[in-house]
Inverse folding.
C-alpha cells in the first residue's frame, strides 16, 4: 500500500482530504504510482504529467524520503520505505514565479 | 422582473454575480476554483444551468469544468470511470485533452507555425482561452485554444476534436504575439448556423461558412504599419477582439492592437471607425445587447503603456456604430486608478437563456476587488 500526498489544488480537484493510499501491483515506481493514481482519480490525468507523452509537468516535483526524485527515470523503483507505505511519495507544486 | 447573472473569471477563481433587472444590489457567489486562473466561463444559451469553465494553471495545466445546476456544483466532464472506458474495457478518451489533428485526412499537411525568430515550431497546446457553447445544443461547445486552434465537443466537454481546417488558413504564417498565439474569440449566429468567426492574436480574423470545416482569412482593410513586413497582409494582424449583434449577421466590430474597425459585409472588408477616441489601442469591444449600432471600447494609451489615457479608466460608447465616441464616467469606481488590467475579452459576454438577460459591461480591476457597471 503506497501513500501519496498531493498538492492542495489537486486534492480539491480529486475531492480527497489528506493523503491518498493506493494498492499497486508490481514494482512501486513513479510510473506505477501515477498510473494507479490516475486510474483511481481520472480527473488528475494531465495535471501531473502530460496526457500523451507522460512527461512530468515542468512545475511538478516528486519527493521520496526527503529526496527529490523528479529527474530519476520514472520506472526506477522508489525507496523501500515508500513502497511499503512507511513513507509517502510527495507530489509537490514547485516554487515558481513571484 | 427579469434576473441577471454575471459570470466572472479572474486570476484567483470564478465568481457568479446575480441581480434583479435594476442591477442595484448584487449577490456574489464564489470564489469557485479558488486559486486557479479562470480564462473563461460561459453559460449555454440553450440551457442556462449548463455552464462551462476553463480553469488553467502553470503548475497543473488545463482543466475543463462543467456545471449542470447553474454553478452550484462543478465537475470535470468525462472523468467518471464509465466515461473513460470503452466496451472492451480499454480507455476511450479523456477530458481536458486537446490533441491537434495530425491525421492524414484532415490534419495534413500543416504541422508547424512561425516562431518569433522566423523558424517553424510545432503546435503545442497550452490552454483554453475561450469556450463558446452552441446556441441550440447544451452538449455542443467550441474551445479556442493556445497555440491557436479551434476544438469542438459534442458530448458536453468529455472529448474534444480539432476543426483543423482553420490551421490551413495560412497557419504556417501565424506567429505568437506577446500574449501568446491564442484563439480568444468565437462568434456564432442563429441566423446562419454554418457561419462562424474566430479571432486570433497576431494572426487575424477568420470565417467559416461550413460549420468550421474550412476557413479563410477575413482581414482585408486591416493595416498594421510597422508591425508587419506587409502592413496589408492576409494574416498576421493582431486582432484583440471581435463582436457581433445577433440581429445583424453581416456587421462585425473589431478592436485591433491599434485601430477600431467595422465590417458590414461579413468580414469581407473592414473600415476604421476609431474616430475621436483618445487612443484606438485596446483589448475589448462589445455591442449593446439591444441596440446593434451601440458599441463599447476601453481605450488604452499604447502598446508599450498598458494603462488608460491620463490614468483614467473609461469605457467609450458610440451610439452610431463608430467614429463618434463619448466617455462614460457615471459611477466609475476610481478615476485615479492608473494600473488597470483588462481582460482580453468583451467587456461582457452575452449569457442568454430563459432566466437571464444579456449581460453588459464588465471590467476587471487589477489589485482592486471592485466592479463597475454602466
Amino acid at each position: 500500500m503506497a501513500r501519496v500526498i498531493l498538492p492542495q489544488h489537486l486534492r480539491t480537484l480529486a475531492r480527497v482530504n489528506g493523503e491518498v493510499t493506493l494498492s499497486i501491483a508490481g514494482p512501486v515506481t513513479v510510473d506505477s504510482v501515477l498510473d494507479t493514481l490516475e486510474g483511481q482519480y481520472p480527473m488528475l490525468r494531465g495535471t501531473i504529467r502530460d496526457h500523451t507523452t507522460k512527461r512530468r509537468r515542468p512545475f511538478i516535483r516528486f519527493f521520496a524520503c526527503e529526496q527529490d526524485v523528479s529527474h530519476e527515470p520514472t520506472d526506477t523503483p522508489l525507496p523501500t520505505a515508500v513502497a511499503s507505505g512507511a513513507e509517502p511519495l510527495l507530489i509537490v507544486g514547485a516554487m515558481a514565479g513571484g | 422582473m427579469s434576473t441577471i447573472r454575471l459570470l466572472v473569471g479572474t486570476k484567483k477563481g470564478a465568481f457568479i454575480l446575480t441581480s434583479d433587472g435594476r442591477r442595484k444590489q448584487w449577490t456574489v457567489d464564489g470564489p469557485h476554483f479558488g486559486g486557479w486562473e479562470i480564462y473563461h466561463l460561459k453559460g449555454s444559451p440553450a440551457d442556462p444551468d449548463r455552464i462551462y469553465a476553463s480553469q488553467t494553471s502553470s503548475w497543473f495545466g488545463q482543466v475543463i469544468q462543467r456545471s449542470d445546476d447553474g454553478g452550484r456544483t462543478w465537475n470535470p466532464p468525462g472523468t467518471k470511470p464509465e466515461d473513460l472506458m470503452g466496451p472492451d474495457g480499454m480507455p476511450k478518451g479523456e477530458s481536458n485533452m486537446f490533441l491537434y489533428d495530425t491525421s492524414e485526412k484532415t490534419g495534413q499537411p500543416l504541422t508547424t507555425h512561425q516562431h518569433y525568430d522566423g523558424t517553424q515550431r510545432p503546435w503545442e497546446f497550452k490552454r483554453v482561452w475561450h469556450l463558446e457553447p452552441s446556441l441550440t445544443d447544451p452538449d455542443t461547445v467550441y474551445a479556442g485554444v493556445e497555440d491557436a486552434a479551434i476544438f469542438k465537443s459534442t458530448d458536453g466537454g468529455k472529448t474534444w476534436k480539432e476543426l483543423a481546417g482553420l490551421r490551413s488558413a495560412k497557419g504556417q504564417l501565424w506567429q505568437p504575439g506577446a500574449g501568446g498565439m491564442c484563439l480568444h474569440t468565437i462568434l456564432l449566429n442563429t441566423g446562419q448556423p454554418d457561419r462562424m468567426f474566430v479571432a486570433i492574436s497576431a494572426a487575424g480574423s477568420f470565417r467559416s461558412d461550413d460549420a468550421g470545416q474550412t476557413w479563410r482569412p477575413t482581414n482585408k482593410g486591416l493595416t498594421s504599419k510597422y508591425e508587419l513586413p506587409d502592413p496589408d497582409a492576409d494574416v498576421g494582424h493582431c486582432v484583440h477582439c471581435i463582436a457581433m449583434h445577433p440581429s445583424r449577421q453581416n456587421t462585425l466590430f473589431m478592436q485591433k492592437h491599434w485601430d477600431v474597425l467595422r465590417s458590414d459585409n461579413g468580414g469581407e472588408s473592414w473600415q476604421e471607425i476609431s474616430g475621436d477616441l483618445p487612443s484606438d489601442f485596446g483589448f475589448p469591444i462589445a455591442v449593446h445587447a439591444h441596440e446593434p449600432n451601440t458599441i463599447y471600447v476601453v481605450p488604452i494609451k499604447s502598446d508599450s503603456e498598458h494603462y488608460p489615457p491620463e490614468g483614467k479608466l473609461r469605457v467609450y460608447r458610440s451610439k452610431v456604430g463608430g467614429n463618434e465616441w463619448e466617455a462614460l464616467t457615471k459611477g466609475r469606481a476610481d478615476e485615479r486608478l492608473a494600473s488597470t488590467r483588462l481582460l482580453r475579452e468583451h467587456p461582457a459576454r452575452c449569457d442568454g437563456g430563459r432566466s437571464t438577460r444579456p449581460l453588459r459591461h464588465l471590467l476587471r480591476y487589477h489589485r482592486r476587488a471592485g466592479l463597475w457597471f454602466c
Remarks:
- Residues 30-40 of chain A form the longest helix (11 residues).
- Chain A touches chain B through 20 residues (CB under 8 Å).
